[in-house]
Specification:
The structure holds two protein chains of two kinds. Helices cover about 40% and strands about 20% of the residues of chain A. Chain A contains twelve helices and nine strands. By secondary structure, chain A is α+β, with helices and mostly antiparallel strands. Chain A folds into two domains: about 80 residues, no CATH class; about 220 residues, Bira Bifunctional Protein, Domain 2 (BirA Bifunctional Protein, domain 2, 2-Layer Sandwich). In chain A, strand 6 and strand 7 form a beta hairpin. By secondary structure, chain B is α+β, with helices and mostly antiparallel strands. Chain B folds into six domains: about 60 residues, 2-Layer Sandwich (Phenylalanyl-tRNA Synthetase, Chain B, domain 1); about 110 residues, Nucleic acid-binding proteins (OB fold (Dihydrolipoamide Acetyltransferase, E2P)); about 200 residues, Phenylalanyl-tRNA Synthetase, Chain B, domain 3 (3-Layer(bba) Sandwich), CATH 3.50.40; about 70 residues, Phenylalanyl-tRNA Synthetase, Chain B, domain 1 (2-Layer Sandwich), CATH 3.30.56; about 200 residues, BirA Bifunctional Protein, domain 2; about 90 residues, 2-Layer Sandwich (Alpha-Beta Plaits), CATH 3.30.70.380. In chain B, strand 41 and strand 42 form a beta hairpin. Classes of the chains: A alpha+beta, B alpha+beta. At the A-B interface, helix 5, strand 1, strand 2, strand 4 and strand 5 of A face helix 7, helix 10, helix 12, helix 13 and strand 29 of B.
Chain lengths: ~325, ~800
């Protein structure tokens, strides 16, 4: 005589001990599987005396249903407990994948490039070591011209080959000439690059600096287009509410010449030099200055980066102190 | 350039505040760097009125003055001045004002005090107390209708604008030049100073001559001869004017030359004619070993490049810079030879740089390149002032030697050009009014052009656009319209190297490295740190005037400054340090611009820290750097190979490798020699990854297409091999990967020791087999494995472990 009650008690006890999914599966195999213990009871029913058959058969079938329910309930219980989880110290540090950083000058240069690209500008570069001719003469700054004093120059030592005089470019403006040598209007380009000045370093001066030059030439462009373009640039860089002003300034390769200032925390700060491309430069490029006009501009990336990040001393940029650089993680 | 406003007001009127005037001048191109006040700040000293005078109850000689100074309540002060009277306008010092103590003549702060029992709440000032003069007999009575309470500085002092002229505007180095700016901005006209004087009947040519030997260095030299002068102090108005502009009065003759220089921007010099040998002038280059003693007492040994003013025998002035001591104006001078000349700016610049520290007032102006036409205007003005202030009579005419005389060209400006450039169309009258106020002579050529000529005090009106600028800046750039750019957007240039440099920055930053940007200069001794091909002395670019004398070469590698940066940051680098730079290196080419090559250098070192989760601390090693390289290659979608043993002067041979792309070398990876690391102060190992961006750019994959992944399942098997200990795992992996069914291989175990024969090692690979077009059967995999094992056996003498 099979003791169904004892069997049920045993099955339920071992089910209560099953604490995870694999154990539940094993339990199921043991009790309800094809060769499971309850299954074998059911199989053996027909071998029982006829009078016992209906009782045991019905009892075993009921038990099978009950155990099926029990295992489902247990599974639900375990899932609920897993969702509840155990308790860990969530304040322990995570395993952090390293985070790098772009240099603040790269970040700012890229932001300026993006802004101009959005306005349809091409981006090109030029050589750091320039010919005197391109850095000065072709920009209407011949030797002895008073304007040469505007750029203190680091010269390349003469290699006695009799070649032309070379220097570390003092501005990215020579690329105006080089770009005009190979492109025809419409011209709409910026030139980011490193420039060098023979100048003592202090909180606001570096001998190595990054400049972005711009050149736009097309039919009948006017000072209004210069203003419109540079105002749009400044708005995108510093916010739509930025106040701007243009004052007259002098650069030998533009006429009229101007300087763009922005009001920053109450003070007017110079941001860039600009002006209409001098007609002689247009003519030297083989274009008719009556038809083709345009504008050029140049600005320092360090200057903009200092405003943007509130950096008071320009020397931080090339000192490369990791404590300074680390702060630019996550910046775009 | 200091511009005292009282002096400026002699030539032009304006009806606006000082701040507004300064702002408008700046906006139009004459940048006002500072607004200064002469005569002291006189803080807390204001205009007051004596409302009542009462007798001091306790002292006969003292009075009580009730002073109204614009405040709600008048104040009572004790005053002993005999000239005090009701109704006077006076300078009233409030408590706290800085005054000069009349007895000690030292500055002191005014305090509230009691004088003979009466409290005094301020002071009615004397000139001495204000530091204006020594006068202390009575109080200063002001002649002003300024409102009570107006700061005294606004009434009594002068305001000085500090102007920073641009190189194209030497006229901004003169009061008259700025007066013309003000006239243009206010659309008025300047009052030209008088330049007429009586002349004798005897021609100056009969007494002197001017010979110019170097016409390039001296395009023009004018001389005016005045005899019968009496040298003495110049009139007070002239002394005041010079002082307010920052120059020291000397005597009437010298003061006139300085006054006219400040007024017109043209330097002048006065010689004592009697001292000049043969009474004549020769402008020439200095003779070998010639010497001169200058006005400031310095004794110069001249060079033959120096331009000098000489008499018949010797140099008497260093042209355009400073006069000589011998021929200077003295009390006994009776005849003056007045020089007003023009000198070439580069010649002046060379001599100035050779002989003086910062130059002189004269050289500063000549270096801005003056128009030779200006000389005569200034000469006549100075002669008139000398006759006016020192008496005497000028000989007739000017001795004017003018080899550099050039025709002043007429600039024809189409009216259309103004609107083309400025996008506004001012009327003909408006344009002419602006030009006339600036002193630029102009005519209207109907129907549509202006004819303009450059005035003598300027040289920058040469093409129509120069005139357009004059109109635009006077109208005010901020008043001109603003428009967005019209027209077609040009096609961009393709610059693969630049693009690749940017991608490398992004990938390395994503891998946790920090970008640095370093100076491009290195020391000669650091050139040997450069990779492979001996970068010899001659192939580096040398600077003529480096900022740092030791670092006089352009870098041939990013290593020196990169290692320096690594060393300086070691202490701060918790958890290992990974830095990189993308930058240019420079290689000299005789007679041509250097080759500029973009490279990237990454430096990795330090220690990965232990973690609270159980990972142990460990020093970063070659494989950390290699991991950066592998991920960089993956990030750039480029296949890079490694060949052991880079031929590199700075890397450890056995712990370095050459990086190749399509079989060509593109860089190196390896451990920096510890001796070099030590030289830079680096503790522990540092690993360098260096790639030529230029060499890598051409091997980048052009196609952007990607294959679709197979929809069939992979078969995975482990393959444990026993090979020679020095067999390269990468080569075995490559051989396994040679089988067409192998999709991926992971090396997951390396083992030496028990159960492995001496001199051998065990490598365990997990191999993933997959076909793009069917499910692989056990037989397929079995066949592939046998092929692989055969190949490994023959190529590496590998045997399967416990198979």
């Amino acid at each position: 005589m099979v003791d169904l009650e004892a069997l049920e008690a045993e099955a339920r006890a071992s089910l209560a001990d099953a604490g995870d999914e694999p154990t539940l599966d094993a339990w199921r195999v043991e009790w309800l599987g094809r060769r499971g213990r309850l299954t074998s009871v059911l199989r053996s029913v027909r071998e029982l005396p006829a009078d016992e058959r209906p009782i045991i058969g019905a009892g075993a079938n009921r038990l099978k249903g009950a155990l099926e329910d029990a295992v489902s309930a247990r599974r639900a219980e375990l899932l609920a407990a897993a969702d509840q989880g155990t308790s860990i110290d969530v304040t322990l540090p995570g395993r952090r994948p390293p985070l790098g950083s772009l240099h603040p000058i790269t970040l700012t240069r890229r932001m300026m490039e993006r802004t101009f690209r959005d306005m349809g500008f091409d981006v090109v570069e030029g050589p750091d070591v320039e010919l005197e001719e391109y850095n000065f003469d072709r920009l209407r700054i011949p030797a002895g011209h008073p304007a040469r004093d505007m750029w203190d120059t680091i010269w390349i030592a003469d290699d006695e080959s009799g070649g032309p005089r070379q220097l570390l470019r003092t501005h990215t403006s020579p690329m105006q000439i080089r770009y005009l040598e190979r492109r025809k209007p419409p011209i709409r380009v910026i030139v980011p690059g490193t420039c060098y000045r023979y100048e003592a370093t202090d909180a606001t001066h570096e001998w190595m600096l990054t400049q972005i030059e711009g050149l736009v030439i097309d039919r009948d462009l006017s000072f209004a287009h210069l203003k419109g373009t540079l105002e749009a640039f400044v708005r995108r860089m510093f916010g739509a509410d930025i106040e701007t002003r243009f004052r007259c300034d002098y650069f030998p390769f533009v006429e009229p010449g101007a300087e763009l200032g922005v009001r920053w925390h109450g003070d007017w700060l110079e941001v860039l030099g600009c002006g209409m491309v001098h007609p002689e430069i247009i003519e030297d490029a083989g274009l008719d200055p009556q038809q083709y006009t345009g504008f050029a501009f140049g600005m320092g990336v360090e200057r903009v980066a200092m405003l943007r990040y509130g950096v008071r001393d320009i020397r931080h940029f090339y000192r490369n102190d990791v404590r300074f650089l680390r702060q630019f993680e996550g910046r775009r | 350039m200091d511009v005292p406003l009282k002096w400026l007001a002699q030539y032009v009127d304006w009806d606006m505040s000082v701040e507004e005037l300064a702002h408008r001048l700046s906006m139009a191109g004459a940048e006002v760097e500072a607004i200064k006040r002469s005569g002291g700040e006189w803080e807390q000293v204001v205009v007051g009125r004596v409302a009542a005078v009462d007798q001091h109850p306790n002292a006969d000689r003292l009075h009580l003055a009730t002073v109204d100074f614009g405040a709600d309540e008048p104040l009572q002060v004790v005053c002993g001045a005999p000239n005090l009277a009701q109704g006077q306008t006076i300078a009233f010092a409030q408590v706290g004002a800085h005054l000069i103590d009349p007895s000690t003549r030292e500055p002191r702060r005014l305090r509230k005090g009691k004088i003979r029992g009466i409290t005094s709440l301020g002071m009615v000032c004397s000139e001495r107390e204000l530091g204006l003069s020594d006068e202390h007999e009575g109080i200063l009575v002001l002649d002003t209708d300024a409102a009570l309470g107006t700061p005294l500085a606004d009434v009594l002092g002068d305001v000085v604008l500090d102007i920073k002229p641009t190189p194209n505007r030497p006229d901004h180095f003169s009061i008259l030049g700025l007066a013309r700016e003000v006239a243009a901005l206010t659309r008025s006209a300047v009052r030209e100073p008088s330049a007429t004087y009586p002349e004798s009947t005897v021609s100056a040519r009969e007494r002197t001559s001017v010979e110019i030997e170097d016409a390039e260095g001296c395009p023009r030299y004018t001389a005016i001869l005045i005899d019968g002068v009496t040298v003495g102090p110049s009139p007070e108005w002239m002394q005041d004017a010079l002082s307010s502009a920052g120059m020291r009065p000397i005597n009437n003759i010298v003061d006139v030359t300085n006054y006219v220089m400040l007024e017109w921007g043209q330097p002048l010099h006065a010689f004592d004619y009697e001292i000049l040998h043969e009474g004549r002038i020769v402008v020439r280059r200095a003779r070998p070993a010639e010497r001169i003693e200058l006005l400031d007492g310095s004794e110069l040994k001249l060079e033959t490049d120096d331009l000098v003013i000489a008499d018949a025998d010797r140099a008497v002035a260093l042209a355009g810079i400073m006069g000589g001591a011998d021929s200077e104006i003295s009390d006994s001078t009776t005849t003056v030879l007045l020089e007003t000349a023009n000198f070439q700016e580069s010649s002046i610049r060379r001599s100035r740089a050779r002989h003086t520290e910062g130059g002189t007032e004269a050289s500063r102006r000549f270096e801005k390149s003056l128009n030779p036409e200006l000389a005569e205007l200034a000469a006549r003005r100075a002669a008139a002032l000398i006759v006016e202030t020192a008496g005497g009579k000028a000989f007739a005419g000017i001795v004017d030697t003018y080899p550099g005389k050039a025709h002043t060209p007429q600039v024809v400006v189409p009216q259309r050009r103004i609107s083309q450039i400025l996008s506004v169309q001012p009327s003909v009258e408006e344009v002419r009014g602006i030009l006339s106020a600036l002193g630029i002579s102009n005519r209207w050529l109907p129907p549509d052009r202006f004819a303009v000529s450059c005035p003598p005090w300027r040289s920058d009106i040469a093409v129509p656009d120069d005139v357009v600028e004059e109109v635009g800046r006077v109208l005010g750039y901020d008043n001109l319209p603003s428009e967005p750019l019209p027209g077609a957007v040009p096609d961009p240039d393709i610059d693969r190297e630049r693009d690749l440099g940017e991608r490398i920055r992004d990938v390395l930053t994503g891998l946790g490295l920090r970008e640095i940007i370093t100076y491009v200069t290195v020391q000669e001794s650091e050139l040997s740190l450069t990779a492979s091909e001996a970068t010899s002395e001659t192939s580096s670019v040398r600077l003529q005037n480096p900022m740092n004398a030791a670092q006089d070469r352009l870098r041939t590698s990013l290593r020196p400054r990169g290692l320096e940066t690594f060393a300086s940051n070691q202490r701060e680098a918790r958890g290992g340090l990974g830095i990189y730079e993308v930058g240019k290196t420079f290689k000299a080419r005789p007679g041509r611009q250097p080759i500029e090559e973009r490279v990237v250098l990454a430096l990795v070192g330090g220690e990965a820290p232990a973690s609270v989760h159980g990972e142990a601390a460990r020093p970063l090693d070659f494989y950390d750097a290699k991991g950066v390289l592998e991920q960089l290659a993956a990030g750039l979608d480029v296949e890079l190979g490694l060949q052991g043993g880079a031929d590199d002067a700075a890397l450890v041979g056995g712990e370095s490798a050459q990086i190749t792309a399509r079989g060509k070398p593109v860089g190196v990876l390896g451990k920096l020699m510890p001796s070099l690391a030590g030289q830079f102060g680096i503790e522990g190992d540092v690993f360098a990854l260096e790639l030529s961006v230029a060499a890598l750019a051409p091997v980048l994959r052009e196609s952007e297409t990607v294959p679709s992944p197979s929809i069939y399942p992979a078969a995975v098997e482990d393959l444990a091999l026993i090979v020679d200990r020095d067999a390269a795992a990468g080569e075995l992996a490559a051989a396994i990967g040679g089988n067409g069914l192998v999709e991926a291989i992971d090396l997951f175990d390396i083992y030496e020791g028990d159960q492995i024969p001496a001199g051998k090692k065990s490598l365990a690979f997990r191999v993933y087999y997959r076909s793009p077009d069917r499910t692989l059967t056990d037989r397929d995999v079995e066949k592939a494995r046998r092929g692989i094992v055969r190949r490994l056996e023959s190529q590496f003498k590998a045997t399967l472990r416990d198979s």
